[in-house]
Specification:
The structure holds two protein chains of two kinds. In chain A, about 0% of the residues lie in helices and about 55% in strands. Chain A is mostly beta strands. Chain A has a 26-stranded antiparallel barrel. A four-stranded mixed β-sheet of chain A has the order 7-8-15-16, with no helix packed on it. The longest helix of chain B has 12 residues, at about 70-80. Chain B is elongated. Classes of the chains: A mainly beta, B mainly alpha.
Chain lengths: ~800, ~325
C-alpha cells in the first residue's frame, strides 16, 4: 500500500526486481497492430512485456510457476564488509526465485507465492491469496542482513550480548595500553552485523464498492552488534589517565507494527480512518562493558579506586499510537476540499538505570583513608549511586502527544486555471521532565562518563551540592522540546495549452519550538514551475524555488535553566560563569537562510526506440551566520539513455555528476571566560577558523541484453566514483586543538575521502528446452575506499588508552560466479 | 440501470454476445471492487457506444493475451461473467464503436500513451473512477498531479511488467528512476539504504500518489517516516538532542552519502556547525590528530565525536545528558 507502512518491496541484490528482470521477453512484442513500443505520457518507453505464462489447469484453477535454483561461488576479498553490506554473499546452493501463481477465472480468486534465498541472512518468502476486487490476505517472512563492519577486532567476549567481558587476560581497570594492544592484535578479525527478521500479515478487504478496509501486523526483529562507544573522559588530555573505547554494542530488539484502516470512496465524499501502532521492545535495558584501562588521578601521588565497568542505557521500549481521519468533499468547479486530523502519542516508561555501575568506591581518595566524607570530599560510595534509589524517580515516564490538522482545497474556476491552497497545524507536546536529583545524598546532577572524570580530576564528577560543591556547573534537568508548526500555501496553475502549464505556489511556514535558541522561525517561499509536454518528442518539467528564513532573536543562553546555575544556593565561581558558547553561533536548523533551488527533469525521444532523459538540479543555501554553517550548495546533472529496438535487444547507459560544497565557521576560546562576544576576550578573532567540505560524485553505467535465438547475453557495468576534500583555514594557531600544528601554514586539508566501486556483470543464458534454461554469470566488483577518519588505524587499534574495534572501510576486489537453472513449472 | 438484455441488443453481432455470461455468470456475484465498473466516459467520443471485449480482441489479440495475466483482467473477467453490465476493455478505454470505425483517429478511444489525444486529466479521472481515495486521497494538488503525470506514467496495466503493482517498469525503484534517476544514483554512494539491493523501495518512505507533505512522505513528518524502520530512535528519551527530535535530516541525507551512516558532513565538522562550547567542541583539528599523526585525538579518529557521545540520538541514562551513556 503506497499510503501506509513499509515493506512495499521484497527482492535482493541477485535480482532487485524479484524476478521481472530475468523473465523472457515476448518476441511478438506488445501488439500486432504496431510493431514499435509505446511511450508513457511523460515520454518514456514502456518495456517489452514478458512472455505470457502458460497456465495449466487443476480443476477450476489454473497455475503457472517458475523456480530458479543455483549455486554461487565467491572469490577474492569476499569477507569484506562493503562487498557484503546488504547481501552477505555466501558460496553454496541458493534458491534464486520461486514463483507460483494460481488463478480461478470463474470468480477471480488467486494465490501467489514468491520466495528467494541467497544466503543464511538474505531471504524472503511471501504468500498471498484473495479474490480480485474483493479481498487479499498476504503473509511474508524476510531476512535482511546489514554488515556494518567487515574488519573488527574485539577485546571483549560476549559480542552481541549486553555484558562485555575482557579477553586475553586483561584485567578491568588495571591493564596497560601495551597489554590491551597485544590482546587486540591477537583477537580474531570478525564482522559485525545486524540481521533484521521481519514477519508480516496483511488483509485488504472491499466491504462494498465504496467501503474498504485494511489491517496489517508485522514484527521486525533485529539481532547483532555494531560499533559504538564508551567514554572514560578525555584521553587527548590525559593520555595515561583517561580512556576511550569503541565497544561493539548489542542490537537485540523487536518492533510490532500495526496499521488498521477503513476507507470510503463515494461520488461526492471520501473518508479515511486509520490507526497506526508501533511497539518497540529492546531485549536489554542496559549494556555494560569492562574497561581495561587504569583510570588514574592526574595529580601525582593521588589515588583512586579502579574504574572497572562502563554502562549504557539501551533505547527505551516505546509505544506509539496514531489515530487519523481524513474527509474529502468534491466541490463545484471540479474542486475538492479535504480536512485531515491526526492525534498521536509516543510513550515510554522504561526503568532507569542507576547513575553508575561500580561497586565499592569511586572518585579520588585525597587523604588515603579510603573513607568518603567531608574530609575526603572527592571520594564517593558506589552504594549511594549504583542503585535506582539514587534517582529522583525509578522510571522515565515520558510522553509526547502530537496533533496534526490539515485542510486543503483545489478548484478549477476557469477552464485553464487551477487554484489550490491549504493550512496545516502540527504540534508536539512533551509530558513530564526529569530532574537529576539523588535523594540518598541530596546531590543534583549525575555521574559523568562512568565516574572517570571524577577519578581523574577532583570534583569533576558531575554533581552539584549546595554545601560541598556549590559552584559546580552541571546538568540537572531534561529539556522538553515541545514544538508547533503552522503552515499555509496558496498556488495557481495556468494552462497555456493542453500540454503546457505554468504554476506558482507561495508557502509560509512558522515553526515555534520550545526551549530552542529561537522561539519563532518563519519560512517564506515561492515556487514557480513549468510543465510542458507540447513538443512531440520532448517533455520538460522545470521549477525554481526561492526561500527566505527569518525569525525572532537568537538566545544563545537558552539552556541555562537546565543547569545547576539555576538552582538556589548556586554560587558563581570566581570570575563569573564562563560563556557557554560564543554568541555569534547560529545553529543551522534555526539560522536565517536564503535558498535558491532549481530543478529540471526532461525526456527526449531521440528516435522511436530511443530515449534520452536528463535531470539538472541545483540547491544553493546561504546562512546568515558568522559562526556555524555559512553555505551549503549542491548541484548535479544526470543523463540516461535507453534503447529498445525490439523484444530481443535492450540497452541503456547513464552518466551522473554532482557536487556539494559546505562552508562552516567556528571559533576556539583563548580563555575560559565569561565574555561571549566574537572577537572578545574569550573568543578572539585570532581563534577563528573555517572548514570547507567538498564532495564530488561521478556515476556511469551501461547495460545490454541481447537475445540470439536460444541464447541470451547480458552485460552490465556500473561505476560510482566519489571524492571528498575537507579543508580548513584559520586566523592563527589559537584556533587549533594543537597550537603547534599551525606553525607552518594557516590552512590545510585532510586526505581525500575516496569511494570508487566498479562492478561488471556478464551473463550467458541458454534455453535448453521451452521450460528449462540455464544461466551462467559472473559478477565482479572492485571497491576502493579511503576514509581519513580511519587513517593509520590499520597499524594498531590501540593508541594510548583508546581502543578502536572497527578498522573502518576497506578496499576490496571480489568476484561471484553463479549458475542458475530456471524451470517453468 | 442497463439490463443485460439491453446491453446484448446494443452489442454488434461480432461480439457473439451472451456467451460467457450466459454460461457461467450465476455462480458468483461480482466482487465489490469491480461491481460498479462501467464503460468509461470519453468526452472526445460522446456518440460512441460500447462494443464489448470480443470486438476489441478481434484486433487487439496480443494485447488481450498479455492483459489476461494481470489482476485487473482476472477481476474484470470474473465480474463480467457475473454481471453483463460490467465491461472489460471499455471500463478503462471507454466505448469502442467510434474507434472501431476509425481506428487511426486519435481520441476516439481513451488512450494512456504519449500519442493519445486523451488529456492527462481525463486519463487520471478514468483510473480514479475505481481507485479514488485510500492511498490516492491527496492526489489533487500533489506535486505529481501538478506536473501532469498520468497514472500510466508509472503503471501499465496492459501486461505484467513487474512482480507487483502493475508498474510500467520492473520494480518500484526502476519506475521512480524514470524521472528521478539522479536520486537513484545517490543510492550508489558509500552509505545508503538498501534500495539498490532490492530490500526496500522508494514507496517505503514516499507516497507518489500524494500525501500531506511536500516531499510526498507517507507520514506527517520526516521523523515519523524514519521511525517506521528505526523505532528505537522514537523515544522520547530522558535527554533529547534537539536537532534530532526536530528532523533526522538535520544530520542525515536519506538518499545516500559519502560519509558514514548517511551523515551530511564529516564528523567532527558536522557537529561543529552547531557546537562551539568552551572546552573541546570548538577546537579545529588537523590531520596530525589522526592515528599515526603527531598527537592522535579521539575527537577526530574513527567515529570522532560519536565515540564518546555515542547516544547522539538521545539517552535514557540518568548519567546521559551529554549522550555519553
Amino acid at each position: 500500500d503506497s499510503g501506509v507502512g513499509v515493506d512495499s518491496w521484497r527482492g535482493n541484490k541477485l535480482d532487485p526486481s524479484a524476478g521481472a528482470a530475468s523473465a523472457t521477453t515476448d518476441a511478438r512484442g506488445m501488439s500486432w497492430l504496431r510493431p514499435d513500443l509505446r511511450r508513457s505520457p511523460g515520454g518514456h518507453l514502456y518495456v517489452c512485456p514478458a512472455e505470457s505464462p502458460q497456465m495449466q489447469p487443476i480443476g477450476e484453477w489454473e497455475y503457472a510457476g517458475r523456480v530458479q535454483l543455483g549455486y554461487l561461488i565467491t572469490f577474492g576479498d569476499d569477507a569484506n564488509g562493503h562487498w557484503n553490506r546488504y547481501v552477505k554473499w555466501d558460496s553454496g546452493l541458493i534458491l534464486g526465485l520461486l514463483e507460483i501463481a494460481l488463478r480461478r477465472p470463474e470468480d477471480g480468486s488467486y494465490a501467489d507465492i514468491r520466495a528467494s534465498r541467497i544466503s543464511d541472512d538474505d531471504a524472503f518468502f511471501q504468500a498471498a491469496f484473495g479474490r480480485a476486487g474483493s479481498y487479499k490476505v498476504e503473509a511474508f517472512l524476510r531476512e535482511l542482513p546489514n554488515v556494518v563492519s567487515g574488519d573488527a577486532r574485539s577485546i571483549w567476549s560476549g559480542v552481541g550480548g549486553n555484558d562485555l567481558r575482557l579477553i586475553g587476560g586483561l584485567q578491568p581497570g588495571r591493564s596497560s595500553s601495551a597489554e590491551v594492544a597485544a590482546a587486540a592484535a591477537a583477537a580474531p578479525r570478525r564482522s559485525l552485523e545486524v540481521v533484521r527478521s521481519k514477519t508480516g500479515l496483511g488483509l485488504d478487504l472491499y466491504l462494498t464498492p465504496q467501503w474498504s478496509g485494511y489491517a496489517r501486523l508485522s514484527e521486525d526483529r533485529r539481532r547483532g552488534a555494531r560499533p559504538f562507544g564508551g567514554a572514560f573522559f578525555y584521553n587527548f588530555v590525559f593520555a595515561q589517565n583517561a580512556g576511550v573505547l569503541e565497544t561493539p554494542r548489542p542490537v537485540a530488539d523487536s518492533t510490532i507494527n500495526m496499521n488498521l484502516g477503513l476507507r470510503y470512496a463515494g461520488s461526492a465524499w471520501r473518508l479515511d480512518f486509520g490507526y497506526d501502532g508501533s511497539f518497540y521492545r529492546d531485549r536489554y535495558t542496559r549494556f555494560d562493558f569492562d574497561n581495561p584501562f587504569r583510570i588514574a588521578p592526574s595529580q601525582p601521588g593521588a589515588s583512586a579506586p579502579p574504574v572497572e565497568r562502563g554502562q549504557f542505557a539501551t533505547e527505551p521500549d516505546n509505544d506509539y499510537h496514531n489515530l487519523r481521519a481524513s474527509l474529502t468533499r468534491r466541490l463545484p468547479l471540479d474542486g475538492e476540499f479535504s480536512l485531515s486530523a491526526a492525534a498521536g502519542r509516543l510513550r515510554q516508561d522504561d526503568d532507569l538505570i542507576a547513575p553508575v555501575n561500580c561497586q565499592g568506591l569511586f572518585g579520588i581518595d585525597q587523604d588515603g583513608s579510603g573513607q568518603p566524607g567531608p574530609a575526603n570530599r572527592f571520594l564517593y560510595a558506589c552504594a549511594d549511586w549504583n542503585t535506582p534509589a539514587a534517582l529522583s524517580r525509578r522510571s522515565a515516564d515520558l510522553q509526547i502527544d502530537t496533533l496534526l490538522l490539515d485542510s486543503r482545497f483545489t478548484l478549477q474556476p476557469l477552464q485553464r486555471l487551477h487554484l489550490r491552497g491549504g493550512l496545516r497545524f502540527n504540534r508536539e507536546d512533551y509530558r513530564n521532565t526529569y530532574l537529576a536529583y539523588n535523594p540518598l545524598t541530596g546531590d543534583y546532577g549525575y555521574i559523568a562518563e562512568n565516574a572517570a572524570p571524577g577519578s581523574i580530576l577532583g570534583g569533576q564528577t558531575g554533581i552539584w551540592n549546595p554545601f560541598a560543591a556549590r559552584s559546580i556547573l552541571t546538568r540537572v534537568r531534561s529539556i522538553p522540546l515541545d514544538q508547533q508548526e503552522i503552515a499555509a500555501h496558496l498556488g495557481a496553475d495556468w494552462r497555456l495549452s493542453e500540454r503546457n502549464s505554468l504554476g506558482a505556489t507561495y508557502t509560509f511556514t512558522r515553526d515555534e519550538p520550545s526551549n530552542r535558541e529561537r522561539r519563532r522561525i518563519d519560512d517564506d517561499s515561492l515556487k514557480i514551475a513549468w510543465s510542458n509536454r507540447a513538443w512531440e518528442r520532448l517533455t520538460l518539467r522545470a521549477s525554481y524555488t526561492w526561500l527566505q528564513r527569518g525569525g525572532d532573536a537568537y538566545d544563545y543562553r537558552l539552556y541555562a535553566p537546565a543547569y545547576s546555575s539555576s538552582l538556589p544556593g548556586f554560587v558563581a565561581p570566581f570570575g563569573g560563569l564562563p560563556a557557554p558558547v560564543v554568541e555569534a553561533m547560529r545553529k543551522y536548523d534555526l539560522s536565517d537562510r536564503r535558498e535558491h533551488k532549481v530543478d529540471l527533469i526532461a525526456s527526449y525521444a531521440l528516435r522511436e526506440d530511443m530515449t534520452l532523459s536528463a535531470n539538472l538540479r541545483g540547491d544553493f543555501n546561504n546562512y546568515a551566520a558568522q559562526i556555524g554553517r555559512q553555505a551549503y550548495d549542491t548541484g548535479g546533472i544526470s543523463l540516461q539513455w535507453d534503447w529498445q529496438p525490439g523484444p530481443d535487444t535492450q540497452a541503456g547507459a547513464y552518466f551522473g555528476y554532482d557536487r556539494s560544497r559546505l562552508v562552516m565557521a567556528n571559533v576556539n576560546e583563548e580563555v575560559f571566560g565569561p565574555d561571549p562576544r566574537l572577537g572578545g576576550e574569550t573568543f578572539p578573532d585570532t581563534a577563528r577558523w573555517w572548514a570547507y567540505d567538498k564532495q564530488r560524485n561521478r556515476s556511469a553505467g551501461a547495460n545490454l541484453v541481447q537475445r540470439l535465438g536460444r541464447v541470451k547475453l547480458d552485460a552490465a557495468w556500473n561505476l560510482i566514483d566519489s571524492r571528498g576534500i575537507t579543508s580548513f583555514r584559520f586566523n592563527s594557531p589559537l584556533a587549533l586543538a594543537y597550537f603547534e600544528d599551525g606553525a607552518a601554514a594557516l590552512q590545510g586539508a585532510f586526505s581525500p575521502l575516496r569511494y570508487r566501486v566498479d562492478s561488471l556483470t556478464l551473463g550467458f543464458s541458454l534455453a535448453l528446452t521451452p521450460r528449462h534454461s540455464l544461466r551462467l554469470f559472473d559478477y565482479y566488483e572492485r571497491g576502493r575506499l579511503q576514509d581519513w577518519h580511519y587513517q593509520g588505524l590499520q597499524a594498531g587499534s590501540v593508541i594510548d588508552h583508546r581502543v578502536y574495534t572497527d578498522a573502518g572501510p576497506q578496499s576490496y576486489t571480489a568476484n561471484l560466479i553463479g549458475l542458475l537453472l530456471d524451470i517453468r513449472l | 440501470a442497463q439490463t443485460r438484455e439491453e446491453l446484448a441488443r446494443e452489442l454488434p453481432a461480432s461480439d457473439l454476445s451472451g456467451g460467457d455470461a450466459a454460461q457461467a455468470g450465476r455462480r458468483f456475484l461480482a466482487a465489490p471492487g469491480f461491481a460498479t465498473a462501467r464503460v468509461a466516459d470519453n468526452p472526445l467520443a460522446p456518440a460512441a457506444a460500447p462494443v464489448g471485449e470480443k470486438m476489441c480482441v478481434s484486433c487487439h489479440q496480443l494485447e488481450s493475451e498479455h492483459f489476461t495475466h494481470t489482476l485487473h483482467a482476472l477481476g474484470l473477467f470474473a465480474a463480467a461473467k457475473a454481471d453483463a453490465r460490467i465491461p472489460v476493455c471499455e471500463t478503462c478505454h471507454g466505448p469502442g464503436s467510434a474507434h472501431a470505425q476509425q481506428p487511426a483517429a486519435p481520441g476516439l478511444i481513451l488512450g494512456f500513451t504519449r500519442t493519445s489525444a486523451t488529456p492527462v486529466a481525463q486519463q487520471v479521472k478514468t483510473c480514479l473512477s475505481c481507485h479514488a481515495g485510500g492511498a490516492r486521497d491527496h492526489w489533487a494538488g500533489s506535486i505529481h498531479q501538478r506536473n501532469e503525470l498520468s497514472c500510466s506514467d508509472c503503471h501499465n496495466p496492459m501486461a505484467k511488467f513487474s512482480g507487483e503493482g502493475l508498474l510500467a517498469r520492473r520494480s518500484i525503484n526502476d519506475t521512480c528512476a524514470q524521472c528521478h534517476n539522479d536520486v537513484r544514483q545517490q543510492f550508489n554512494r558509500r552509505s545508503h539504504m538498501p534500495l539498490a539491493e532490492g530490500q526496500m523501495s522508494c514507496v517505503d518512505c514516499h507516497n507518489p500518489h500524494g500525501s500531506l507533505t511536500q516531499p510526498l512522505l507517507k507520514t506527517a513528518t520526516v521523523n515519523e517516516t524514519c521511525y517506521q524502520c528505526h523505532a528505537e530512535k522514537r523515544g522520547p528519551f530522558l535527554f533529547e538532542h534537539a536537532p534530532v527530535r526536530d528532523s533526522c535530516l538535520n544530520c542525515h541525507t536519506p538518499h545516500g552519502s559519502n560519509q558514514h551512516a548517511l551523515l551530511s558532513a564529516p564528523v567532527p565538522f558536522l557537529c561543529q556547525q552547531c557546537h562551539s562550547q568552551l572546552g573541546h567542541p570548538n577546537d579545529l583539528q588537523t590531520p596530525a590528530s589522526l592515528a599515526g599523526g603527531a598527537h592522535p585525538d579521539e575527537r577526530l579518529m574513527g567515529r570522532a565525536c560519536l565515540t564518546c557521545h555515542a547516544q547522539i540520538h538521545g539517552s535514557n541514562a540518568p548519567s546521559g545528558p551529554k549522550f555519553h551513556e
